[in-house]
Amino acid sequence: MPFENKEKLSQHPFQESPNLTLVRLALPVLFSLIAEPLTGLADTAFIARLTGPEPVAALGIGSVAFSSLFWVFAFLGIGTQTQVARNEGGGGNSVKVTSLASMVALCLGFVLIAASLPLLDTIATLFGAYGVVNDLACKYMAYRLLGAPAVLVSLVCFGALRGVQDMRTPLLAALGINAINFLLDWVLIFGNGPFPMMGVSGAALASSVSQWGGALWLLLVVRKKIGLTWKFKGAGIVELMQVGGDLFIRTGVLLFFFGLCTRVANGAGADQGAAYQAIRQFYIFSALTLDAYAITGQSLVGYFLGRGDTFFAHRVAVVVCRWSIVTGCVVCLAMLLGKDFVAWLLVPATAVGVFGPAWSAAALSMPLGSLSFATDGLHWGSGDFRYLRNAMVISSVLCVIIVFCVDAKSNDVVYYIWLVTILWTLLRAGFGIVRIWPGVGDAPLSKA
Q1: Which residue ranges run through the membrane (predicted)?
Q2: Which of 61, 167, 169, 353 could, after both became Cys, cross-link 28 (CB 3.0–4.6 A)?
Q3: Is the dihedral of CA 184, 185, 188, 191 positive or negative?
Q4: Residue 269 main-chain phi, psi, to 5 deg
Q5: For 298-345, how does the pLDDT look when each residue is reduced to its tens digit (9 = 90+)?
Q6: Is the Cα torsion angle 168, 169, 173, 179 positive or negative in sign?
């Protein structure tokens, strides 16, 4: 069966040059994913220049809470990419799928604004923010929410374009968004030019304005390359909602774990909270670097499974995992060598002492931890969302129990939290690997 469509499959470059094809597709994804969290890194670097650790701690709480609100809706981009990739391989039409997902994203964005604004103080408190930190975090989240519809629409556009293996356009969008954000950060945070000094609020407003510009441009590109329509009948709303249900639970558990870690760190003091924010920000930056292979693998797996070829889908898994481990080793080395620079750039002077050990632990976890990101993308491409949901629930519940046992009065709270985070990552990697090798359960990617 895997070779029945060999002549047709030979049209795809991956069959002849798997490594070269993966790298060629992954490089634009890599740079676009690196560009995306530069918004958070730029915000942190600018805010760290303000007086005291409170603004950085508030930024950490606000960005975690904001990211949490949007990660819940990650299914819009992930589900769209998988369906579009399947259509690309099987000759289907992706116009209705992309159009429906875009409209759902826009509506959910405005609902999110209306539902979240009255709850900002409660949200900040849940993440351990009190006093000045709470006030600053609430202002940050209020301004970031203005960009909610744009962020969700951008997720759909990125997914649709990557589904047709256009990895270049998302890169251009990410670079443009970050360039605008960086300029507006400098203007609004410090009050340069005719604008007043807004501090943390300025960072949030800069992000929202840049996101709206990026979303409008992406819609124009998607309309040209894939197409958009108001006729949604037959677009697969049931499939999208099923994916959404599984990913909603998975993302909710993930966010609860990170939210608990943030709360425990901030509960130990502003210095611990600031150190945790700096490590978390760069950890996400590094994780997204590793995600380049996962996202590329998702599109390739979906493409080959859309053509009914499990042989090459499995081959994609092999190549993606190999490259992920090698890249994880490179990231580990870069983090260890760059520890002092990152501490200078992102960490207030009073928090440097608690930053170092936790940073080193996070760096050393990268080689094996890279497989958690790689296998997530591979299983997304195969549509194995329910398995990923269950794996995340089991890993997170175990690690949440351990976090609850951390002594909040210890001077090493951030270090202990990152040790638990490493365990959480390795558990997820293990679940992802055994689903492919040897292929436990009804595994779409087990070798045919």
Answers
A1: 21-38, 58-79, 100-120, 140-164, 171-191, 203-222, 282-306, 312-337, 344-367, 387-406, 413-437
A2: 167
A3: negative
A4: 125, 165
A5: 999 999 999 999 999 999 999 999 999 999 999 899 989 999 998 888
A6: positive
DSSP 158-193: HHHHHHTT--HHHHHHHHHHHHHHHHHHHHHHHT-T
Joined together, the tokens standing for residue 12 give: 């795809």
Rounded Cα distance, 155 and 222, in Å: 12
Measured CA to CA, the distance from residue 416 to residue 273 in angstroms comes to: 13
pLDDT for residue 127: 73
First to last CA, the chain: 9
Angstrom distance (rounded) from CA 423 to CA 400: 11
Contact 128, 62 (CB under 8 A): no
Q: What pLDDT does residue 409 have? A: 67
Decide: 429 and 423 in contact? Cβ < 8 Å. Answer: no
Q: What is the pLDDT of residues 239-256, one digit of tens each?
A: 777 888 898 899 889 878
How far is C-alpha 72 from the geometric centre of its chain's CA atoms? 11
Q: List alpha helices for 91-226, DSSP H.
A: 95-116, 120-126, 131-145, 148-163, 168-190, 200-225
List the one residue out of 126, 135, 275, 149 whose CA is nearest residue 201.
135
pTM, entire model: 0.84
Q: What angle do CA 39, 203, 358 make, to 5 degrees?
A: 55
What is the separation of C-alpha 127 from the centre of its chain, rounded to a whole number of angstroms? 20
Those residues whose C-beta lies under 8 Å from the C-beta of residue 299, and which sit 6 or more positions away, are: 25, 81, 85, 162, 163, 165, 381
Query: Would the CA dihedral through 124, 128, 131, 132 be positive or negative?
Result: negative
3-state secondary structure of 298: helix
Cβ–Cβ under 8 Å, residues 156 and 218? no
State residue 271's pLDDT score: 81
Distances (CA, A) of 304 to 49, 312, 314: 49, 6, 9
Asked if residues 315 and 324 have their Cβ atoms less than 8 Å apart, the reply is: no
Token look-up 């009065």 returns 409
Query: How high does pLDDT run on average in the chain?
Result: 86
Say how far apart CA 36 and CA 286 lie, in whole Å: 12
